[in-house]
UniProtKB/TrEMBL annotation:
Residues 142-646 form the Serine/threonine-protein phosphatase 4 regulatory subunit 3-like central domain. This is SMEK homolog 1. Residues 5-101 form the PP4R3 EVH1-like domain. Pfam families: EVH1_PP4R3 (PF22972), PP4R3 (PF04802). It comes from Bos mutus.
Length: 812
């Protein structure tokens, strides 16, 4: 039988930082003569071929994860992992590895613990430092081994870094690099690669400052070209010096700033392109390198921000019509990268940065750039605009409102001179670019729609003592911009079906509808007035006939959002224009298909039924019942019809229009006087927990039909009439016989209390509402002994305050 304990999968880490499965086999450990040491062997379970042969190196850091995984990194940046089928097998191999390295098997990382006695550790700490071999060609291998052996131990890493700093060792190594290149000493160059890579992993800012200095950085990059894993060296220096060109779009007078830009570009290149992909153990060892680049960018932004002449020239050339297209594209790309760098700033510094750009006139400049024909320039300008909107939408809103005011003033003067003002507002330019996006996937349009959504979102609008940004900006937007946004929608819905129904047009209209739906949800009277006055909903519902299901669903979602507001202004508009017709038509055309369209339409009608929107219920039943009456796989439409009939019944009988939450009949047995019983019957209509004419009902009773609720009331009223007729007969008999009968008091409390008194016989008649012992009364619990006190109560089936649910109950 196969030993499943040692069954493993072998994984290697690729350049994309993903684990590749190399096969399944069985692992063992043993001495391998060729490797001169204990090794891990994995043979494939399919054919017995060797999947892995790895020497257990005393200095390699092995890591145990999740009880069934062992991970380690071998030479040449080659990461490996064994995934065990069983925990017992993983533990067994882990013990072998720890045994070879002399570690305790209870640890999860073999190199985390320094195997030194306290005395040795004290000696190491008190010793002056690590002694480096002399910097000679013959000792490069020794230096490389020293660096590699120091990396696993934090203490040795610290000592190595101090030794490299104090002795100016890095510059001596770079001199050897030139010697090795001149002699074409490939072995020495490979050792230098390992040494320089190890120095990077020491993660020391002081060392980076030496390595990234103007005189050293290109030699450091040269050392990293000779990766032993590659058959041919890379040509990084050739790319940086000949291919990559530094362009000063605006001349930079500060030499320190210029040097800082060069340095940052090259260090970023080292991080992204030159250094090998860090292994799972090296990722945190390059944190100082990330920080070095980060703080360089902060310095560059600060120095440029302080150079007023530079920024003034930049914006002057951007907006100058005489600037050629190529130059303008370079200026815009620079400004885009400048804004991208600003994302590294602290909040207070970012505030100052965008305030500076605003004072320099970045928004008017963007308006000019967005009006140009060059798509690349416009794309870069859109990215810059997105930085501004995401950072401070109020700043953008304030600019466009001021611009609109200025345009209005200019337009008045031009109108007097009979000249047309052709200036386009910045926000309308954004909308036009969204509408005119030529990308088949509408990537730019999606980005611009998100920016517009941010600008019209009331949640990020400010309210001050003097003015409300929400009121002012939304008033401006609906007056100057909304007609531009809805133009493609109105142009495409002039008939009963969309004029253009290609995929790109459908995508664009879906974006417009998404923004309009957002407006319905977050704006109040502005969007309501616009929809009703421009008949927008009717035009939107034309899109229900689109062949693209996603567009039809967007149109339906727009209407559903409007209905969800339960606003009678919207409801009257929908009924007056018969705007359920396109929805019903789409529902019927969809047939019996069980899809998203079917479910969405049914959900909308179900919402109307559950929320009891009376006007819409009556409208749907009166106009579309014949088309919907055969739909019986859901009870939604029959439920709507029932709601409608209940409404009509209440209108026909105004007394039933007010819901009654309960009827109580209480019989109190007074003291016995002779053989007569003084019975008091109180009929109480109460309105506890009623709101807007609706009685509070428990969730369990909400589904009961109103017919069931009204049935006990009608029965009670019939019994009351019968009782009154019987009472007349009894009164006549009583007057003749002279016998005294108990009095019945009938009290109705429903807003105003009404008390009715009548004389009734001593013996309760069958069918009388006050006769709990009468076998003829509905739901009678039985006869009540005359000698005991009696209490009975009758309630409707509608649930009442705090759980009163039974229509009829009593004690007997």
């Amino acid at each position: 039988m196969t030993d499943t304990r040692r069954r493993v999968k072998v994984y290697t880490l690729n350049e994309d930082r993903q684990w590749d499965d190399r096969g399944t086999g069985h692992v063992s450990s043993g001495y391998v003569e060729r490797l001169k040491g204990m090794s891990l062997l994995v043979r494939a379970e399919s054919d017995g071929s060797l999947l892995l042969e790895s020497k257990i190196n005393p200095n390699t850091a092995y890591q145990k994860q999740q009880d069934t995984l062992i991970v380690w990194s071998e030479a040449e940046n080659y990461d490996l992992a064994l995934s065990f089928q069983e925990k017992a097998g993983c533990d067994e191999i882990w013990e072998k590895i720890c045994q070879v390295q002399g570690k305790d098997p209870s640890v999860d990382i073999t190199q985390d613990l320094v195997d030194e006695s306290e005395e040795e550790r004290f000696d190491d700490m008190s010793s002056p430092g690590l002694e480096l071999p002399s910097c000679e060609l013959s000792r490069l291998e020794e230096i490389a081994e020293l660096v590699a052996s120091s990396l696993p131990s934090p203490l040795r890493r610290e000592k190595l870094a101090l030794a490299l700093e104090n002795e100016g060792y890095i510059k001596k190594l770079l001199e050897l690099f030139h010697v090795c290149e001149d002699l074409e000493n490939i072995e020495g160059l490979h050792h230098l690669y390992e040494i320089i890579k190890g120095i990077f992993l020491l993660n020391r800012t002081a060392l980076f400052e030496v390595m990234f200095s103007e005189e050293c950085i290109m030699d450091v990059i040269g050392c990293l070209e000779y990766d032993p894993a590659l058959s041919q060296p890379r040509k990084h220096r050739e790319f940086l010096t000949k291919t990559a060109k530094f362009k000063e779009v605006i001349p930079i007078s500060d030499p320190e700033l210029k040097q800082k830009i060069h340095q940052t570009y090259r260090v970023q290149y080292i991080q992204d392109m030159v250094l090998p992909t860090p292994s799972v153990f090296e990722e945190n060892m390059l944190s100082t390198l990330h920080s070095f680049i980060f703080f360089n960018k902060v310095e560059i932004v600060g120095m440029l921000q302080e150079d007023e002449k530079f920024l003034t020239d930049l914006f002057a050339q951007l907006t100058d019509e005489a600037t050629d297209e190529e130059k303008r594209q370079e200026l815009v790309n620079f400004l885009k990268e400048f804004c991208a760098f600003s994302q590294t700033l602290q909040p207070q510094n970012r505030d100052a940065f965008f305030k500076t750009l605003s004072n320099m006139g970045i928004l008017p400049a963007l308006e000019v750039i967005l009006g140009m024909d060059d798509t690349q320039v416009r794309s870069a300008a859109t990215d810059i605009f997105s930085y501004l909107v995401e950072y401070n939408p109020s700043m953008v809103r304030e600019f466009v409102m001021q611009e609109a005011q200025q345009n209005d003033d200019v337009s008045k003067k031009l109108t007097e001179q009979k000249i047309t003002n052709k200036d386009i507002l910045l926000i309308n330019l954004i909308i036009e670019h969204m509408i005119c996006d030529t990308d088949p996937e509408l990537g730019g349009a999606v980005q611009l729609m998100g920016l517009l959504r941010t600008l019209v979102d009331p949640e990020n609008m400010l309210a001050t003592a003097n003015k409300t940004e929400k009121t002012e900006f939304l008033g401006f937007f609906y007056k100057h911009c909304m007609h531009v946004l809805t133009a493609p929608l109105l142009a495409n819905t002039t008939e009963d079906k969309p004029s253009k129904d290609d995929f790109q047009t459908a995508q664009l209209l879906a974006l417009v509808l998404e923004l309009l739906t957002f407006c319905v949800e977050h704006h109040t009277y502005h969007i309501k007035n616009y929809i009703i006055n421009k008949d927008i909903l009717r035009r939107v519902l034309v899109l229900m006939a689109s062949k693209h299901a996603f567009l039809a669903l967007c149109a339906l979602r727009f209407k559903r959002k409007i209905i969800g507001l339960k606003d009678e202004f919207y409801n009257r508009y929908i009924m007056k224009s018969f705007l359920f017709e396109p929805v019903v038509k789409a529902f019927l055309n969809n047939g019996s298909r069980y899809n998203l369209m079917n479910s969405a339409i049914i959900e909308m009608f179900e919402f109307i039924r559950v929320e009891d929107i009376k006007s819409l219920t009556a409208h749907v039943v009166e106009n579309y019942w014949k088309a919907l009456e055969d739909v019986d796989y859901v009870q939604t439409f029959k439920g709507l019809k029932l709601r409608f009939e209940q409404q009509r019944e209440r209108q026909d009988n105004p007394k039933l229009d007010r819901p009654i939450s309960g009827i109580y009949i209480q019989l109190d047995n007074a003291k016995e006087k002779k053989q007569n019983t003084d019975m008091t019957v109180r009929l109480i209509f109460y309105e506890d927990d009623m709101e807007d004419g609706e009685a509070v009902v428990s969730p369990s009773d909400k589904t009961k039909n109103d017919d069931d609720i009204m049935d006990p009331i009608s029965k009670f009223m019939e019994r009351k009439k019968l009782k009154e007729s019987e009472e007349k007969e009894v009164l006549l008999k009583t007057n003749l016989s002279g016998r005294q009968s108990p009095s019945f008091k009938l009290s109705l409390s429903s807003g105003t209390k009404t008390t009715l008194s009548s004389q009734s016989p001593a013996t309760n008649l069958p069918g009388s509402p006050g006769s709990p012992g009468s076998p003829g009364s509905p739901g009678s619990p039985g006869s009540i002994p005359k000698s005991t006190s009696q209490t009975a109560a009758i309630t409707t089936k509608r649930s009442v305050h705090r759980g009163t649910k039974n229509m009829l109950h009593g004690t007997g």
